[in-house]
Amino acid sequence: MTDDLVKRLRLIGEKRLQCTACYKFIETADEAADRIEELEHLFDLRWAADMRAIRLWQSAHPDQPRTWPDHADLGTWCLSRIEKLEAALRRIKDMHDGLVDDLEERDDRTYFIVIGALEGKDD
What we know:
By secondary structure, the chain is mostly helical. The protein has two domains: 1-68; 70-123, no CATH class. The protein has helices spanning 2-15, 20-60, 71-106, 109-118. Helix 3 runs antiparallel to helix 4. The longest helix is centred in the first third of the chain and has 41 residues, at 20-60.
C-alpha cells in the first residue's frame, strides 16, 4: 500500500505541473514520499532487530517456542544476557592475565611459545 502511495507521490513530482500554486504541493509530495521511504526503512531495521532478539529469546526458552515477549521483558532479558556475557569475558580475561603472569615468572621458552601461539606466530 505504501509503495503505491510513494509511486503516486513521485508521479506528481515528475509531471511538474506548470503552475505556481501546484509547485508547493509537488515539493510537499516529494518530501512526503522521501519521508515515507525513510520511515519504512527504519521500520524494517527495527523489525529485523526485533526478530533476531525474539529468536534468541525463543531458543533460550524452548518450552515457549511460539511466545513473543513484550519489549520490556525482551529488553530486560537481553540486558541480563549482556551482563552475563560481560562477566564471563572478565573471568576469561582474568584467567588469561593470570596465565601470562605465571608464564612470565617462569622466564623460559614456554612463555614465548604460548604468547607466539596467541598472536598467531609460528615458533
